[in-house]
Amino acid sequence: MGFFELKCPICGVEIVRPPITAHYEASHSDFAEWISHERRLAYYVLFSYGVLILGDVLYERFLTPYFLFVVVAYVFATVVLLTARSRRKIRELRNA
Q: Which listed residue, of 27, 42, 51, 85, carries a Cα 20 to 30 Å from 33's Cα?
């Protein structure tokens, strides 16, 4: 398997990287729709990270001295939850 090749996480077919979205749309249309939903959710999560950091900067840490720990915990929790959700969805599609 070369540098630009990978396996489809659902069916295991080896795919060249650039047209992988075409494979998803052709073979796994429900997964392609779910990916677009996940991308939109990721934008909202990144926006919420920015809002938390901006609030911390604007209030110059008057909110609480441990607010940075809250931000780090929030980032860690969202990354773990989104990763678990993604793995569960791929497992469901693989078994279907």
A: 51
